[in-house]
Specification:
The protein is an alpha/beta fold. Helix content is 31%, strand content 25%. It has a five-stranded mixed β-barrel. The chain is elongated.
Amino acid sequence: MTALTAGLCALFVFLGHWQWEKGLWRQAEWDAFARGADRPVALGERNLAELPRFQRVEVAGTFDPTHQFLLDNRIHAGQAGYEVLTPLALAEGRVLLVDRGWVPLTGFREHLPDVHFASPGRVTITGRLDFLPAPGLSLGRMPPAQGPEWPKLTSYPDMTQLSLVLGAALPERIVLLDPGAPFGYVRDWQPPGMSPARHLAYAIQWWGFAVTLLIIWAVLSAPRSARPSPRAAH
């Protein structure tokens, strides 16, 4: 019993520490998300990797509505749908992907939503820098299909796969189009993951399990003479 108690206590302490560290890491992400809401920075010829994640940027270019991606398995308000990725060609020759927001599932998987729009020519947009959505596990990944059909349905792709199909080198970051900007759909961008407070609460919960287990072990391990008898309790 002592060995089992020691092993379980060590496990609970480890899990508590893991959740605490995850909570601190998540808090740093949420702080960065809050800072990113500041006045946008003109992208110009800057490398996107030089700017912090969630930084708002202002970028000028031309949309390519004929070559769009639909990110599958995206949920908004409990409803299934897609996020629309549209290439934006910059003046210096670079191409960025702009996440124009979420559209609902049509009800039939074989009928994709119509996300085409007439190109407005050169535009200036603002949005946050972020990475492509990533699954918690490797399951559910589906690269975009080859072929002439557009838009292309994909689930949790990487930039290499998208670049190969698009025929243009894409940076690792995408632009989350600002909620108030034109040319978009539903855009309710939130900081990633569950709240830091929940991770910290889980950590305290695991440590509480360890303390409770130690108390139970101490009571059960105490000599019988040291335990209060039922008669003495009366």
